[in-house]
Specification:
The complex is a heterodimer of chains A (619) and B (179). Chain A is of the alpha+beta class and 619 residues long. Chain A is built from 23 helices and 17 strands. In chain B, a hairpin with a 6-residue loop joins strand 4 and strand 5. In chain B, helix 1 runs antiparallel to helix 4. Chain B is globular, with a radius of gyration of 17 Å. Classes of the chains: A alpha+beta (619), B alpha+beta (179). The interface between A and B is large, with 48 and 52 residues.
Chain lengths: 619, 179
Amino acid sequence: MTYGYAGKIAEVDLTENKVKERSLDKSILLQYVGGRGLAVKVLWDRLGNRWREIDPLGPDNLLTAFTGPLTGYMAGVRICVSGKSPLSNGIVGSTASGEFPLELKCAGFDGIVVKGRAKSPVYVLVTDGKVEVRDAPNIWGLDGKETTQAINREVRGLMKERDPTFGLWREPGMLYIGLAGENRVRNAAVMQKWTHACGYGGYGAVMGSKNLKALVAKGTGPLPDVADPEELLNLQEKYYDTMFSDPQRAFWGTGAGAFSVGAEASSEPVRNWQEEWHGEKSIGVINFETRNWVKRYWSDFGCARACMKLAVVKSGPLKGAITDNPDYELGAYCGANLGIYDPDGVVYVSSVVDDLGLSGINSANTMGFAAELYQRDILTKQDLDGIEPKWGDAEAMGELAKLIAERRAIGDVLAEGTYRAAKKLSDLKGMDVTQYAVHFKGIEVGAHGIRTGHHFPYLGYALSVQGGDHTSIPRPPLSEALATMGDSLVICNMSLGRGPVRGLIWSFFKAVTGWDLTQEEWMNNNGRRIIQIQRAALLLSGPDAIWDPLTDDDNPHRWYTPLPSGPYKGSAPNRDELIEMRKKAYSELGWDQNGIPTTEELTKMGLTDVDKAISPLRR
Amino acid sequence: MCARRVRIFKPWIVRDYVKCTGCRLCEIACSMKHEGRIWPEASRIRVFMLIPGVEVPHLCTQCSNYPCVNSCSVEALSVNEETGAVQVDNEKCTACGLCIKACPGEIPHLHPDRTHVVICDLCGGDPECVKVCERAGYFAIFKGNRTASINYDLYAKNPEEITANLVINLYGEKGEEFI
């Protein structure tokens, strides 16, 4: 008996229009657990021997959506979406909260793997023990909010038709894409609940490339049996005690950072990282809280923290915009990074990117990049189809987001993401604009800078197997394996990843699965194994971009430019020192002096196939 | 000293819809109590989220005339004298769905195993759902007294109708687009 798991996944082949069920092997679960770990295992097993040839936006790529063993049991519900990333050409475990994973599990599945490409737009519907591919001609083309409502209506109607005596049917859970994903914008997100994004990795584009509008689930079953129900109750009590006794209880969410990370830590993207400091009090959370929030605690199933808020623009030209919080990342990226400090403006831009299904971090990085090129007269109003993205102009930035999602005019180039757009624009404009692109291995960077030396580590993103993903960086003395833990159990970094409840993770894991696993074991074995496979895939990369560790395990040009303002004015890392630090880090990570995982390390991890696949990379 | 007559009220679960976070800890508590496991669709209280952000805790209001009880043709439903809650006799219930049709708010639903209907029994007067919501400090549902001055029958309302009001309350005119 495998406790905590439904025990099977659904495999959908959209080309053949076929569905298969596959049971999950206990020995695999013991090693890879779920979520990111399981995705890495499945992707490598299926695609590893021809990784470099696989086009992330071609039918051979896989899209995975996996739950974890703690889904629904321990504070919240997150899904981990993955595949070969159209941004990094490696593997990114991209997670977001919402009820889809709960519904999937209650329908009897731990995850879904989708391959192939449908002839016309479809969505996949999972109900109790049943998986079907349904035509979606009327849903394709709708924005995020319309999509949610259309699928709600259709699926609730369908359930009522199929089982009229049940009583009222509730809404299903769903992962969907907006226009950006449909148009294969490389930093399109996979969305849930209007505002929650699996943002890093560009998996919205992967869904779009498969003509897949949504994955939808409605289950009526219980969560799977657990190994020790009594202990689970005790742990829940402990967890509630801790969460409920916190007086702020995430009242502000992470959004409070939009002022303080800029004004105090001085590590916030300001106008495409030209600065990292601002003292704009207007973006302080007190203004959102008093002007925009219509719900002060918003949550997903099982989460006692409720750090989300619903924010609305109630009056003025931007009236009608709805988003959550905005949280820190979007406050920073759709705010300071675009020179916007007006709460209505930040809510508006966040709402536009939500509706288009763009990743708010990644696409707003690209928008900031474009706005800087406009500032420098490199991109013109004509290039931008009449849009003038002046810093601080929320309406213009909203239009810029639409230009990208619709791939109009220069939007077609920007839709390739910051890294690819910078390369192409350098050709088009006959000058090097890559110096303005702030990304790591194709993944636009999260909203946390390194230049002060006090915020994020100097070599965090540079060594991350998920590029610019701020949730997956090695933090000395701990490695990135720590991040794979949260993404494989698929738990929330905010409610569980930090603070006193963190210590409960392995107790919850044991109560649910019955398996003993310690953080030490995870860091040295399971998590580290996942990192090595991700590293191998990232270095193999291809087909359109291949990373060279000695060049690309580095910070972007801009981050070596001293900060021009604020309390840390003049501060920047010393590149020579970082290169020395990098040598030491390589050896700690089990990589050779060229950044390639060593045969010894991979053999120890039982990854001889990975070793074989990357041996041509060794010089 | 004069003795004061203390009037004992029946309990009623007060619902403050705007405050509902959608955390559904109430469903976890309810299904743990009644089913011994986490089982959202077996919960006697179900939070509908027909529009994101518009969460509607949906549960029995104990109508004054109990249309569900009256509709039952096999006497599977009865009223608990002490609490006023509707009690389901799972053995007698045939899962015919007549009570669901009779409820003005379509509140009851079948247990996912389809053998009987589920209706809130107020946990015998000390509802678990309320305890966790109060403990969390949300007070989207809280324990009140069934005082005489209120018409509780009005709360036997379909979640679509409640949603149509709430969405305007939260999102203003923009909310019209989602109804």
